[in-house]
Amino acid sequence: MVLNRHSKTITQDETQPAAQAMLYGIGLNDAQMNQPFIGIASMGYDGNTCNMHLNHLATYIKQEVNSGEMVGLIFNTIGISDGITNGTDGMRYSLVSREIIADSIESVVSGHYYDGLIAIPGCDKNMPGSIMAMGRLNRPSIMVYGGTIAPGKYQNKDLNIVSAFEALGEKIAGKISQEEFKGIIKNACPGAGACGGMYTANTMAIAIEALGMSLPYSSSNPAVSHEKIDECKQSAVYLKILLERNICPKDIMTLKAFENAITTLIALGGSTNAVLHIIAMAKSVGVKITQDDFQRISDKTPLIADFKPGGNYLMQNLHEKGGVPMVLKYLLDKKMLHGDCLTVTGETVAENLKDVDVIDFESQNIIKPIEQPIKTTGHLQILYGNLAEKGAVAKITGKEGEKFSGPAKVFDGEKELIKGIERKKIQAGDVVVIRYVGPKGGPGMPEMLKPTSALIGAGFGKSVALITDGRFSGGTHGFVVGHITPEAFDAGTIAFVEDGDSIEIDAVSNSIHLNVSDDILMVRRKKFIQPELKVKNGVLFKYAKLVKDASEGCVTDES
After folding, report:
1. Dihedral sign from CA coordinates of 357, 474, 45, 538
2. Which residues are 175's β-sheet partners?
3. Cβ contact 433:538 at 8 Å
4. pTM beyond 0.85, yes or no
5. Among 473, 502, 511, 551, the one annotated catalytic
6. 377-399 burial by CB neighbour count: b if 16+ within 10 A, else e?
7. Cross-strand bridge partners of residue 504
8. Residue 473 annotated to the active site
């Protein structure tokens, strides 16, 4: 049985003496030169809670890989913290980092002829970046999610990262003191782990577990737990099985597997960012997923999870009650998942779940019965209309209502909106428009978490809607519509909205419309001059030149 299918290119070829000299130089012996090489890609770095522990987890994986007669080789790639960059120009680098992560993992594993890959991501874009690389490489691979953070505590209240964002709006509105504001900030993040609610990190983790590319319980095992350490060790065991059976990502990431992922993230109330990421991940293995697939699945999938930001619970709470496999088993029993899809255990979804406990609706309130859902259809809605000819993504849990109409208040960028809140320019009933923050206009399609949190903190959570050609954090809640395509930079209709224009959003008929005549729009369009890119060089410039629009997943290649 050949397990070193790729590494033998450099370890067994006598015409590669320099490569072999270097490998002996790092301490390998003759036996190891015949063993499979496993790249261990850590997105660990000291700068944020999501990633601060990942290098430590990598050491557990390497130890177990080496004990399994394989050669574990740790390497690092980047991460950009959404929590740290949100509300600043640094946020433009967040989505861009997904491409850099995918490119760098692909480069190291392919360039160095590694036979398999275990990736350890933490923050949002780490995960789809890892999966995109795995799809391109198509070598035995497993993703180990870094895990969710524990709740913070202040004044007997559970906190999370969004508590800190919303505290700004509360302070601006005079609802909390400076001391309380500082107290929330200091206690929101108690240690290692990714944002605790059903924000983008946990959304992508549960989607990837449902997809079959991580081990059962990966998405709900907390960052600081013995279960997470055990998972790290088990990943090496299962990667050996994948090598022996030559099970590769394209064998796992099928159309049906992506349908499982979308169904699960919709049932659990996942982030709008998942639309971009699932489309991009599917492209990496040649599977066609569009935003319309999200609508198709959302139409038949009820929202059954009461997670923050719109609900009451955190991922840690679900872990304590049985974890994500308990929910997957419930969805499978309800015939909402494809049980025959292969996973990284080498077994199918159904086989993985056969011994999982049945969900008990009496002992927990996080997951609701399908017969008594929070919303009878999914919260992710794809809207079309003259404001979004190529589509937009709305996050409607039902608590915000399903329709909104009102006069536009237009802001060219989120900083202008924050000024608008401070100057009392926003009124109840307004449709707030933030534009020129799309993939090219940003560039980088930054998240609008600071503006939405500030609006909620200022008391506008239920009385205004917000639309944008940017995107939203998984921590966003309220009546929000993002990913408006075409974006303002590309002369999308959002570029021609003026203060006072009537905008109508309908998440029942899935429409978003600017109530301005075609003649008036034509006059405004003729005056349009595409602005210069906000950057002249560097990675943001390259991204803006290459990126596809949001409806195509914001990918930068032609896959």
Report:
1. positive
2. none
3. no
4. yes
5. 473
6. bbbbbbbbbebbebbbbbbbbee
7. 405, 513
8. yes
